[in-house]
Design brief:
The complex is a heterodimer of chains A (260) and B (269). Chain A is α/β, with parallel strands linked by helices and 260 residues long. Chain A contains ten helices and eleven strands. The longest helix of chain B has 34 residues. Classes of the chains: A alpha/beta (260), B mainly alpha (269).
């Protein structure tokens, strides 16, 4: 019995602790809060985090809920009824799919930024990679995003631009196809592979990694569209904020290329 | 079927208070059953065999079977002595050893995968030494087996431990009187007596290993034919080709159901 009592007290304390933590940010004068759910490609994790904080600051009582994953995963979630208000995709393919299934109005999507690819290696650069050509060496362990994920698709396009033979050699070095771009970054940060290919913006968000540029002639330009999914004025406001000079400036800080 | 008939007999036989038990049960059973039903119905609508026989699906199926059977083998070889020791000996810190053995079952698989990665990864606690002698674990089929063993072996150890502990101590004394040594006692008395618990425990471990996802995707990564087991192919395939994902899911559900039925029938013997 004594043990049970101790256990119950432990549970009560755990609940109290989580309760106080959860209650802290609540404002004193309770105005019913509105929430805005934004589904954004994993590559926008840091930049959209900052944009959401600023949007909340200028819109008191609005709570921005962010959901990051591979754009293909987000598209599938939206198709299956996920309650998103805004969708920001890392390629036009996933956005077009939602237009086709009439979940996004045909004239709603707007391009809001560009992104490019870079090679990243762990801080120690264990394989001593020095240039893009080195990727075809046969002694490498590479981690890319899976072909289904936009960045994985862009990676394969970029490699194909550099020649079929080169591309095949590089692809033979893959040890894992990850489910989104941040998984690639995480595994390179842990030093589990010699190199990965991610967006410029991901390299900016992980400054401790070594960055190797990809020749501009081969590199691809990723175009990111954004669209409100509902008629809610708040969704349109958020899209406008992302497209505003202030929003674009923040995206540029995180390594994206603004659209204009 | 007979259990079902019995159930309905109770339902109709008497009293008005049965619903207190029946309705909550039915709600929960619906929660378990409806998703499986939906999966199977969906599979019959799409070209099930066409999807189940794609190159990708077969590679995942083969890999899943090989790795899960290897995991079961390792579990039997290493887990049986551990279960035997835990059942028969008391030693200092035994409670903590038991906790350590039970912990992987309740850990979120993502935690297991992350822990494996920072232990056996290239720059991991132990992995850096492996790396120096040329052994690379992450992103290999061996990593899949390690991840599966990590999460699934505790189920076997628990079952086998209970099996060994349930054996009447008089049998053990009788064996000693006959002059048996420790190994003879184990191989000729204890192991045969605990056979049922061992088999059903091994099957549980097998089903859990087949379903392993979180630890595998973190520690072993995802590469077709090398580390892409069925659950990974289902997860990553569901956006590209939902047909393949559903076909593989149905195969996995069917296989696991058969194994569980088999385990149950052994327990009841």
């Amino acid at each position: 019995m004594k043990k049970i009592r101790i256990f119950i007290i432990f549970i009560i304390f755990a609940l109290l602790a989580s309760g106080t933590l959860a209650c802290q940010p609540a404002p004193v004068d309770q105005v019913p809060a509105q929430s805005l759910t934004v589904f954004a490609a994993a590559s926008m994790t840091e930049s959209f985090g900052e944009l959401a904080t600023l949007f909340e600051a200028s819109h008191p009582n609005v709570n921005v809920i962010l959901n990051f994953a591979g754009s293909n995963t987000l598209r599938a979630q939206i198709e299956n009824g996920a309650p998103a208000n805004v969708f920001a995709s890392a390629n036009t393919k996933e956005m077009d799919a939602l237009v086709t299934s009439e979940l996004v109005a045909a004239d709603a999507p707007q391009l809001f930024l560009h992104n490019r690819l870079v090679i990243i290696t762990p801080t120690t650069n264990p394989a001593n990679l020095a240039s893009f050509d080195n990727l075809a060496r046969s002694d490498l362990k590479l981690i890319f995003a899976a072909e289904e994920v936009p960045v994985g698709k862009y990676t394969r396009q970029m490699l194909a631009n550099a020649g079929t033979e080169f591309s095949e050699k590089v692809l033979a070095n893959i040890v894992s196809n990850e489910s989104d771009v941040k998984q690639v970054v995480a595994k390179i940060q842990l030093g589990e592979a010699d190199a990965g290919i991610v967006y410029t913006s991901d390299a900016v968000a992980a400054p401790e990694l070594v960055v190797i540029e990809i020749p501009a002639v081969f590199n691809v330009l990723a175009s990111y569209p954004i669209a409100p999914l509902t008629d809610a004025p708040l969704a349109a406001e958020f899209v406008n904020f992302v497209l505003s000079p202030e929003g674009q400036a923040i995206l540029e800080i995180w390594g994206f290329t603004p659209i204009n | 079927m007979s259990t079902l008939r019995l159930y309905f007999k109770h339902l109709t036989s008497d009293t008005q208070t049965n619903w207190i038990f029946v309705i909550p049960s039915l709600i929960l059973l619906a929660l378990f059953g409806i998703p499986l039903l939906a999966l199977i119905l969906q599979a019959t609508q799409t070209a099930f065999f066409e999807h189940a026989l794609t190159k990708e699906a077969i590679a995942a199926l083969q890999l899943s079977l090989t790795t899960s059977l290897l995991s079961v083998g390792i579990t039997l070889i290493l887990g049986t002595p551990l279960a035997y020791s835990l059942a028969r000996w008391s030693f200092a810190g035994k409670k903590h050893v038991e906790m350590l053995v039970d912990l992987p079952v309740v850990l979120p698989p993502a935690v297991a995968g992350l822990a494996l990665l920072i232990a056996f990864g290239r720059q991991g606690l132990v992995g850096q030494f492996f790396n120096q002698i040329g052994i690379h674990l992450p992103f290999t089929t061996a990593a899949v087996v390690i991840a599966q063993t990590f999460v699934a072996a505790p189920l076997y150890i628990r079952a086998a431990r209970i099996g060994f502990a349930d054996i009447d101590t008089q049998l053990e004394e009788a064996a000693y009187v006959e002059g048996a040594n420790q190994w003879q006692l184990f191989s000729e008395v204890m192991f045969p007596m605990a056979r049922r618990a061992i088999t059903s425990g091994a099957i549980l471990t097998w089903t859990r290993a087949l379903g392993e996802f979180g630890a595998t995707i973190l520690f072993a990564g995802n590469l077709e034919g090398v580390t892409q087991t069925m659950p990974l192919a289902i997860y990553l395939g569901f956006e590209r080709n939902i047909g393949v994902a559903i076909a593989l899911s149905v195969v996995l559900v069917g296989f696991s159901a058969i194994l569980l039925l088999f385990a149950r029938s052994i327990e009841k013997e």
